[in-house]
Design a protein that fits this description.
heterodimer; A: about 625 residues; alpha/beta; Rossmann fold; 2 domains; six-stranded mixed beta sheet; two-stranded antiparallel ribbon; 25 helices; 9 strands; about 5% strand; B: about 80 residues; alpha+beta; SH3 type barrels; six-stranded antiparallel beta sheet; about 15% helix; globular
């Protein structure tokens, strides 16, 4: 099967083209440097199959960032039968600099000028035949989003692979780097000037430059107070939609799981299963898994697509731009606000996303502080605790308080980053160039459908892999009583002193410890501890409030628990990811200790202050 | 008028005369096509004044002051 490599700058619609060609719905992002792992797919064209590899977006092949190293190594390897250099018609000149480097390294190149419709709308016309003459390789215009030009591209790729379309790339033959820095600079300048020369010959711009929509939007979104206000309002809006929208589907799911649980119980009675088996399977495994699905799925299914829409729109790099000043003062990289945003979805994803940060020191800071922002697994518990004592049943007030929590999280992230860059990771903030892509209309339908499917699979997978075994373990702990008291209760009693010191209780601390595999388990575990394991995962918000009321729960405990929810050790998945990314036990340990230390200090301080004033 | 990139006001245009940077940042700027003679336009300062967005060869790039003050430019009229 011929192997085709897709290469191009970040954000030129390369992944969209890949999806259009392979039909494989791989996630594509509208921020620079998103694709890190190599995505592969198969494209059928005229009865033949082609293997496609989506190389990470790169600005140049003279490697520095891990993504660019991957791209260069792959192209130098010469395994690809044909390389498609994907260019952006709206800024052809810059894309050509990379295309020229690709032509320098590989024998068979086809240039694909993508986003051709967007360019026409902006009054930019690209002369394809002229470009073909200048480059000496086949050039195809395409609009991957509408799947235009797909067949024309594959036709050229087929012909080039088979050798029927001879390719004579016009290259300098000087390679892409020199023996020393000076020579490399000279070569780089040569490519830049050649790209400029070609663009001058092949690109025509309509006179009378109007203000582009991107510039108009940026005037509001990036300007002083309005910029910050929009950022805050967007955050608030996303939370409000998540809280308000997740309510009913959650209740519906819970109702379905309850009915199914009743049926299973009746079935178990008919089969005359022994009580411990029924208990372990239904009250432990089933109830915990069902609860995780019911509580987790709706907020995730709402939050993720909203977020992906903002990403698709091109807003996220603007967040990095607005926040860069704060992060620079903390000795960190502005792109950390992007990984922080990813962490809101899932901390493990946020930690992986830290690869977009070039400097090792700043990448480590971002990895170590990612768990300072609450992930989706912590949202339902936070929302419940906020509604218990603080928001008085108003979703908007709840969203407001959640936004405050988020600001606290961001503040602590900055404080922790600053602490790290003053101590363990000393150093000056490194250089930083951030590309701000033009705004693009997000693909609403596609994003919603894909997000819903991905999230459902993710939550279901986690329910089976993490929640079900954890449910079994907790049921056993709640029901094994070697000395008369169940293990769960003895452990809670043991932890009571430190728990009280932090303004919570032994039961809460134990729930946090046992909930380490997944944060969404903490609340169900707490319920099990407080009811001595007699209550099963399937309970409503009202029932949970009742149980907490019985246990003498106060708003102070809610407050301290909320703070501890925000700042404690990351879940095991995140820690494993941090280990994979840093390859160091020391840094992984610090990733767990750092947020925990912040949480302990904050909780103890709140507890102390509240006691002084009461 | 000769100055450095960070001194430009919003809307000013200039031509790069020299990059007084080394290592990774120099490479990064070369990747974006910033070489001697390249035209840049100062588009927008962030609310805090740093970083600043420049238009370089049709791309919007945000650059921090610590780097832009090492890029020598000559102010030119905008095209």
């Amino acid at each position: 099967m011929p192997l085709i490599a897709l290469a191009g700058n970040p954000n030129v619609g390369k992944s969209t083209l890949f999806n259009a060609l392979t039909g494989m719905k791989q996630h594509t992002g509208n921020w620079p440097g998103k694709t890190v792992a190599l995505a592969q797919g198969v494209c059928r064209y005229q009865g033949r199959e082609y293997r496609l590899v989506d190389l990470p977006g790169a600005y140049s092949l003279v490697s520095r960032s891990p993504e660019e190293e991957v791209a260069e190594a792959f192209l130098l390897d010469g395994t690809a039968d044909c390389t498609v250099a994907v260019c952006d018609a709206t800024c052809l000149e810059r894309s050509l600099m990379l295309a020229l480097q690709i032509m320098e390294l590989t024998e068979r190149t086809v240039v694909c000028v993508n986003l051709i419709d967007e360019a026409e709308r902006a009054g930019v016309h690209v002369d394809i035949p002229a470009l073909e003459r200048q480059l000496g390789v086949p050039v195809v215009a395409a609009c991957a989003l509408r799947e235009h030009g797909k067949d024309a591209l594959m036709e050229r790729v087929r012909a080039v692979c088979d050798g029927f379309l001879p390719v004579q790339p016009k290259r300098c033959g000087c390679g892409i780097r020199g023996e020393n820095d000076e020579a490399s600079d000279a070569i780089a300048a040569q490519f830049v000037l050649r790209a400029q020369e070609i663009a001058e010959k092949c690109v025509r711009r309509k006179e009378g430059r109007r203000t582009s929509p991107t510039e108009k939007l940026d005037r509001v979104l990036l300007r002083g107070w309005s910029g910050y206000a929009v950022l805050l309002l967007l955050l608030l809006g996303v939370f409000w939609l998540t809280i308000e929208g997740a309510n009913y589907p959650s209740m519906g799911l819970q109702w379905c799981f309850d009915r199914l649980g009743d049926s299973l119980r009746r079935g178990a009675a008919v089969l005359r299963l022994p009580a411990p088996v029924t208990g372990a399977l239904l009250d432990g495994v089933y109830a915990t898994a069902a609860r995780v699905v019911a509580v987790m799925l709706p907020p995730m299914a709402i939050f993720f697509p909203l977020f992906t829409l903002l990403e698709d729109f091109g807003y996220l790099p603007r967040v990095a731009f607005l926040m860069d000043d704060r992060f620079r003062r903390a000795g960190a990289c502005g792109k950390q606000s992007l990984t922080l945003c990813m962490g809101l979805g899932c901390n493990a994803a946020g930690v992986t996303g830290c690869r977009i940060i070039d400097s090792r020191r700043e990448r480590l800071i971002a990895v170590l502080t990612n768990a300072f922002v609450p992930c989706n697994g912590r949202f339902p518990a936070l929302i419940f605790l906020i509604s218990l004592h603080f928001s008085h049943g108003s979703a908007l007030l709840g969203a407001g308080i959640l936004t405050l929590c988020m600001l606290l999280s961001v503040g602590m992230t900055l404080a922790a980053s600053k602490l790290l860059s003053r101590t363990a990771l000393r150093g000056e903030p490194s250089s930083f160039v951030l590309e701000l892509p033009p705004y693009r209309r997000p693909r609403v339908g596609q994003v919603l459908a894909r997000s819903l499917r991905d999230r459902t699979l993710f939550v279901l997978g986690r329910a089976v892999a993490v929640a079900a075994p954890a449910g079994l373990l907790i049921w056993l702990l709640a029901n094994l009583a070697p000395h008369g008291t169940p293990l769960l209760q003895s452990a809670a009693a043991l932890l009571d002193a430190p728990g009280r010191l932090l303004g919570m209780s032994g039961a809460v601390l134990l729930a946090f410890l046992l909930g380490s595999p997944a944060n969404e388990l903490v609340l169900p575990i707490l319920m099990m501890i407080l009811t001595s394991g007699s209550l099963f995962g399937a309970e409503s918000t009202a029932a949970m409030s009742h149980i907490l009321g019985e246990a003498g729960w106060t708003w102070r405990q809610s407050l301290c628990t909320i703070v501890f929810f925000l700042f404690h050790w990351p879940c095991t998945t995140t820690l494993l990811t941090a280990y994979r990314e840093t390859k160091s036990k020391k840094w992984t340990l610090l990733a767990a200790v750092l947020p925990t230390a912040f949480g302990c200090v904050l909780c103890a301080a709140i507890h102390l202050i509240l006691r002084l004033f009461s | 008028m000769r100055t450095t990139l960070d001194q430009l006001r919003e809307g000013d245009c200039a031509r790069i005369t020299a990059l007084r940077l080394r290592g990774a940042m120099r490479r990064r700027l070369l990747d974006f096509g910033m070489i001697g003679g390249t035209r840049v336009r100062c588009l927008r300062k962030s609310p805090a004044g740093d970083p600043v967005i420049y238009m370089v060869r049709g791309t919007m790039l945000a650059i921090r002051r610590q780097d832009s003050r090492r890029i020598a430019v000559e102010v030119t009229p905008c095209r």
